Amino acid sequence: MIAGTDPLILGVESSCDETAAALVTSGRAVRANIIASQHDLHRKFGGIVPEIASRAHVESILPVMDQALEAAGASPDDIDAVAVGNRPGLIGSLLVGVSAAKALAWALDRPLIGVNHVQAHLYAAALDAEPIEYPALGLVVSGGHTNLYAIHSPLHMQRLGRTIDDAVGEAYDKVAAILHLGFPGGPVLDRLAQQGDAAAVRFPRTLLDATSLDFSYSGLKTAVLYHVRGKPQGRGSGATFPRDADALSDDQKAAVAAAFQAAAIDVLIAKLQRAMEGLSAQGDRPRSVVIGGGVSANSLLRQRVAEFGHTHQITVRIPDLAYCLDNAAMIAGLAHHRLADHRVDDLTLPAIATTES
Ligand code: KG4
Ligand code: ZN
């Protein structure tokens, strides 16, 4: 663990379906990282139900904050600032964390710091680790985002590209649903893919225009759907399919998982490659490549990004598994840099569902 003293920041995260609190000193030393996942509540619906998510956050938020303090052996008075992920996310979910953080900051008379959840994912690789070397090439891959960035510093980044339809994590979840693997699908599909023959099926790699740094995953998802279930009769929600995933053997399911994963990750690496070439050509060659978000837990992506860094002779920064999925340590860690810049918020801090950055 990194030695760290001041300041001690409490981070709060409730943007989606994890209620989390963490205590971080010096921006990188994680003293507690508590995450209450709601997966069991959403599983039977096959996806996140926003109203259920916000109610579950209300129940968990105070216990999770208490547990973080207990795990760190700290008391509320020890907290120097309160940070909260206030954008983007599900509005009802965000409001729970933002309200709790405001109440605590007000009661303790400490600074309040609103943090962009997507930017925090790109900071997660610095937790319990060395500082990230900038400029960096950044890729956020989660259930809601597939974004590429040129990162100048922890708080300054320029978005180079984003998905024009599904996020890559969303594609994982939808393909897992097509294969009847349960929710959330990413981790299960990742494990199944490791047993499958990726060359048994070939799915499309959508790269868009020759210079585009945007992503598109809906074509890949549809290709998997038609491969597994056959061509639909009828259109839209009334469409019927000749078969479903039960018609596949276990080997065939594993092959579909592996072929999907190969196509999904190939596209991410191809776009990193394009961005690397573009930035280098304009004299902004990155010193490191940073990934973050739930899909950065993926075994093939971690391996391929490591190879990418090796090929380009740049440092590879992949978060520890504990910091890939939604967590509050990344919120508290990034907030450290805001506090150091004296850029804090007040009690008018809004919860914002979408963000352009
Ligand atoms: O960052 P995150 O926890 O929440 C959002 O901000 O969206 O990411 C959740 C996403 C889900 O779509 C989940 O299926 C995916 O990350 N995921 C994975 C893996 N672990 C989680 N996708 C692929 N491989 C994994 N090992
Ligand atoms: Zn996230």
Any chance you could write out the topology, listing elements then pairs?
Elements: E1 8-13, E2 18-25, E3 29-37, H1 39-43, H2 50-72, E4 81-87, H3 91-108, E5 112-116, H4 117-121, E6 136-141, E7 146-153, E8 156-162, H5 168-178, H6 185-193, H7 218-229, H8 250-281, E9 288-292, H9 299-312, E10 315-317, H10 329-340
Parallel strand pairs: 1-4, 4-5, 6-9, 9-10
Antiparallel strand pairs: 1-2, 2-3, 6-7, 7-8
Helix pairs in contact: 2-3, 5-6, 5-7, 5-8, 6-8, 7-8, 8-9
The chain binds 5'-O-[(R)-(carboxyoxy)(hydroxy)phosphoryl]adenosine and zinc ion (ZN).
Small molecules (ligands, ions, cofactors) in the structure? 5'-O-[(R)-(carboxyoxy)(hydroxy)phosphoryl]adenosine, zinc ion
Structural class: alpha/beta
Shape: globular
Helix content: 25-40%
Per CATH, the class of the largest domain reads Alpha Beta
The largest β sheet comes out as: 5 strands, mixed
Distance between the termini: 32 Å
Tally of DSSP β-strands: 10
Low-confidence stretches: none
Mean pLDDT: 95
**Given the structure, what is the number of helices?**
10
Strand content: 15-25%
Q: Which radius of gyration do the C-alpha atoms yield?
A: 21 Å
CATH superfamily of the largest domain: ATPase, nucleotide binding domain
CATH architecture of the largest domain: 2-Layer Sandwich
Give the domain tally: 2
